[in-house]
Each structure stands twice: as C-alpha cells, then as structure tokens.
C-alpha cells in the first residue's frame, strides 16, 4: 500500500474503534469520563515503559487498562463520598494526567515519546513504524494494534450485546435480573482505555476525545435504535478520517487536527439536518403546528 493509503486506513480504524466505543459512553452519559481516561492512560503508558523498558503494544495496553479502570474506580469513590461527579472527574483526571506528564519528561530524551507526541500524536509518522516478523514487513504497527482492539471491542459487544443494552438503558432492571452491571461498567472502561492507547500515536491524548465523543453524539441525533447507533457512530468516525485527511492535504495543515475538526463538521450537519432531532426539521414542525393552530 502507498504512504497515503496507510494513513487513511489508520485514520479510519481510529474513527471506527473510538466511534463504536464512544457511542456507548454517550448513551450512558459518561462522555466526560472518556475525556478523563483518554488523558490518564498516559500514566499507564509511561508506567508500562518504566517496567518493561519497551513501547511494545501489549505492555502499553495492559498499563492503560489498569490506569483506565483505576480512573473509573477513583471517580466512583469520590462521587460516592459526596464530591460532585464533575469535580471528581476533574480531580482524578488532572492529577493522574499531570503525574504522567512529569514522568514522561524523565524518559522523553531516550525514546520516541514526549509530551508533544503524547498530547497531539502524529499520524504522518505511522507508516514508518512497521511490524516485522521473520524479516517480513507486515505494515504499520498502529494498524495491527487498532485492528486488534477493534476486533476485541466488537467481539465483546456482540458477546454481551443484551447485557450491555439493558444495563445502558435501565441499570436497575439489569441488576434485578442478575446482569453484572458493575462488571460491564469496568469492562467498558477497559475498552475505552484500549481504544485510547491504540489511537495514541495517531491523534494523541487530546484529539482522541473528539473521536470518542463526537461520532457517537452525531449518531445519537440520527437514530433511536441501539444497534444502528453503534454502526452509524463507526461510519461517521471513518468518514471523519476521510474528510479530515482530504482537508489536511488540501490546506496543508495537521492531519490529526483536521480529522478532529471533521468530526465537528459532521456533527454540525447532523445537528442541522437530522430528520427527527435536527434544527431544521424542528423548525418545520413548529411552523406546521403554528399554521394548523
């Protein structure tokens, strides 16, 4: 594949992986917790490097999963103790993220990992970091990591589809019929952590928030069906990558920044043109009602 094709494929995988997972967060009204986890996993990545002295994908995923679940546990603990939920997220998010930034400053000179890379990512470098087995170049490491995380996330959703659906819309009913609501909650946090780490090299800790939240929010405006929303969220995420890359090439700007901006553009279109929830449709319904009255 060409250099551009690898970048486009990586961007699409980021969009689909984060979009599908993020749609669940939007439905559960946990979007800001995704923001927290997408930043605090930096501590998990740095911790994994300090333990293994390697930026290999598996240790990073394990470290991110541990810190992602730790973030959710700490937020829940503070919330249960009387701290407002948004304040709890802010305290945990800033503390763990700041610790990760401090630690990364000690190792940034020795490896390809620094604050700028962690915050913004650089998808243009993805095609050069390839996975080689027995002398055979299998393509960018990020593509394999994103593909593996996407496959894992989809498998979990399909395997626990009913449990995830009922615990999302009616957790009390789910508890009453024996659905492990707490387990599913922390499993989702682990999925978010994996998705964030897999997308880290491409869009960084800041812009991955857009990929986690905006496609799901856009899909929420387009459908009222759970399964269709997950599909649409992934499609919108991939479309954002295509539109963003095209805009980045056209205007010679940051690719990851353009992709994140494209998510906002598509959300605006959904916000205006959604058949049921769009502003234009609401205006026409209101106008029609006034005429009938």
Summarize the structure.
The chain is mainly α and 293 residues long. The chain is 80% helix and 3% strand.
Please provide a written account of the structure.
The chain has helices at 3-27, 31-52, 57-80, 85-107, 115-120, 141-159, 161-169, 171-176, 181-222, 226-251, 255-273, 279-292, and strands spanning 130-133, 136-140. It has 293 residues and is mainly α. Helix 1 (3-27) crosses helix 9 (181-222) and helix 9 crosses helix 11. It contains 12 helices and 2 strands; from the N terminus they run H-H-H-H-H-E-E-H-H-H-H-H-H-H. It is globular. Strands 1-2 form a two-stranded antiparallel sheet. It has a single domain, classed as ABC transporter involved in vitamin B12 uptake, BtuC.
Keywords:
ABC transporter involved in vitamin B12 uptake, BtuC, single chain, 3% strand, mainly alpha, 293 residues, ABC_BtuC-like
Radius of gyration: 20 Å
How many helices? Answer: 12
Strand and helix order: HHHHHEEHHHHHHH
How many beta-strand segments?
Answer: 2
Question: What's the arrangement of secondary structure elements?
Answer:
Elements: H1 3-27, H2 31-52, H3 57-80, H4 85-107, H5 115-120, E1 130-133, E2 136-140, H6 141-159, H7 161-169, H8 171-176, H9 181-222, H10 226-251, H11 255-273, H12 279-292
Antiparallel strand pairs: 1-2
Helix pairs in contact: 1-6, 1-9, 1-10, 2-3, 2-4, 2-9, 3-4, 3-9, 6-9, 9-10, 9-11, 10-11
Protein name: Iron ABC transporter
Keywords: Cell membrane, Membrane, Transmembrane, Transmembrane helix, Transport
Main location: membrane
């Amino acid at each position: 594949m060409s250099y551009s094709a690898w970048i486009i494929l990586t961007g699409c995988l980021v969009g689909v992986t984060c979009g599908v997972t993020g749609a669940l967060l939007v439905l559960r009204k946990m979007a800001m917790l995704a923001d927290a986890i997408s930043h605090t996993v930096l501590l998990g990545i740095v911790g994994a490097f300090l333990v293994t002295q390697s930026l290999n994908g598996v240790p990073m995923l394990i470290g991110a999963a541990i810190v992602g679940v730790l973030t959710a546990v700490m937020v829940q603990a503070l919330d249960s103790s009387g701290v407002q939920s948004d304040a709890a997220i802010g305290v945990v998010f800033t503390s763990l993220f700041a610790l990760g930034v401090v630690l990364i400053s000690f190792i940034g000179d020795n490896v390809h990992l620094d604050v700028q890379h962690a915050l913004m990512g650089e998808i243009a470098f993805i095609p050069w970091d390839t996975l080689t087995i027995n002398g055979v170049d299998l393509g960018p490491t990020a593509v394999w990591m994103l593909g593996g995380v996407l496959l894992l996330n989809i498998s979990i959703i399909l395997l626990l589809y009913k449990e995830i659906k009922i615990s999302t819309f009616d957790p009390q009913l789910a508890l009453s019929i024996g659905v492990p609501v707490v387990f599913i909650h922390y499993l989702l946090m682990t999925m978010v952590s994996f998705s964030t780490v897999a997308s880290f090299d491409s869009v960084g800790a800041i812009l991955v928030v857009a990929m986690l939240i905006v496609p799901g929010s856009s899909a929420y405006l387009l459908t009222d069906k759970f399964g269709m929303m997950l599909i649409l969220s992934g499609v919108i995420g991939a479309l954002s990558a295509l539109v963003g890359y095209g805009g980045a090439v056209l205007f010679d700007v940051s690719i990851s920044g353009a992709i994140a901006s494209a998510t906002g553009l598509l959300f605006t279109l959904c916000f205006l043109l959604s058949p049921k929830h769009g502003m234009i449709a609401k205006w026409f319904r209101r106008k029609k009602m006034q005429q009938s009255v």
